[in-house]
Amino acid sequence: MKRSLMLACAAVLAVLAFAQAKDESLFRLPKPMAAPPQPADNPMTPAKVALGRLLYFDKRLSKDATVSCATCHDPNKGWTDQAPVSTGIRGQHGTRNAPTVLNAAYSDYQFWDGRAASLEEQAAGPIGNPVEMGFNARGVEARLSKIEGYRPLFAAAFGDKKVTLERVVKAIASFERTAITGDSPYDRYEAGDRTALSADQQAGMALFFGKANCSVCHTGPNFTDGDFHNIGVGMAAKRPDLGRYEQTKLERDRGAFKTPTLRNLADTFPYMHDGSVKTLAEVVDFYDKGGEKNPWLSSDIHPLGLTAREKRQLVAFLGALNGDKVAAAAPKSFPR
């Protein structure tokens, strides 16, 4: 048997074993998170998730084989890259901070400006972006089709060996839907464990849902309303990023960006759509002063008048929203 075929068979067996091991736990969810919605044309299966895991970490999905999904959304870094903006092929830099993949399965819109309506559409975006992965559908399909070890994995996930970009992003999206975090100290406190939060965290919680006004936008189990708001970040620039406006062309959407989840916030620094704020303490200071004034500033943003102690308590509570790390190790080998 040729060495390349032996390696391909080994990869198939390893991935199918991973799929089988994940079969029973695929839909287990940390409290209080419910099962995320799944598109009718892309139901999750163990084989599809296992294939998606490989593709998520495979740098061959980028034109020069230097960047993978995990490069900017690293499970070891809160499923982000912990950089202000990400670095793509040929050392190019984007203009926005990489959002976490954690709990993205619950979002109706993807990206800071909501230009994608599904995880599948989101997964296709970076692949085709010339600054990020710089490939096109034909290039991705041609490259992966030549990799013998991928053929049986596509067959297991989709019924035949055909490799298409649509199938690639469906598999990646299926894998991303397993990145669900919960079971934070806050969740345990709400479930009845009154020892789960410190006195300062409890005081911070009262501020979060009261005086600090955070829960107006950061609401529900995922701590986001899923909507778009202008809080003033970057609006003083000569040519500000107009965010949601570029998609809708509605005047009210100028400078508006999607409300991010606050879960595992301590791992997803730096903050804001441009990665311009380094710490949670600085985030609290920004909101306390009422954001940055501009003609489209959200009516929910105004000076809060927090004391230094209250700011520390609010930061302490935000730390209590860190739950499951949701580990996902990079494969030791890839199909050949």
Short key terms for the protein model shown above:
336 residues, mainly alpha, Cytochrome Bc1 Complex, Chain D, domain 2, 2 domains, two-stranded antiparallel ribbon, 12 helices, 35% helix, globular, disordered N terminus
What does this structure look like?
- This protein has 336 residues and is mostly helical.
- It has a two-stranded antiparallel ribbon.
- It starts with a helix and ends in a 17-residue tail after the last helix.
- It has twelve helices and two strands; from the N terminus they run H-H-H-H-H-H-H-H-H-E-H-E-H-H.
- The chain has helices at 3-22, 46-57, 69-72, 119-128, 137-145, 151-158, 165-176, 185-190, 199-208, 245-248, 280-288, 308-319, and strands at 228-229, 257-258.
- Helices cover 35% and strands 1% of the residues.
- Mean pLDDT is 93; it is low at 1-24.
- Helix 1 (3-22) packs across helix 2 (46-57), helix 2 crosses helix 7 (165-176) and helix 4 crosses helix 7 (165-176).
- It folds into two domains: 3-176, Cytochrome Bc1 Complex, Chain D, domain 2; 188-319, Orthogonal Bundle (Cytochrome Bc1 Complex, Chain D, domain 2), CATH 1.10.760.10.
- It is globular.
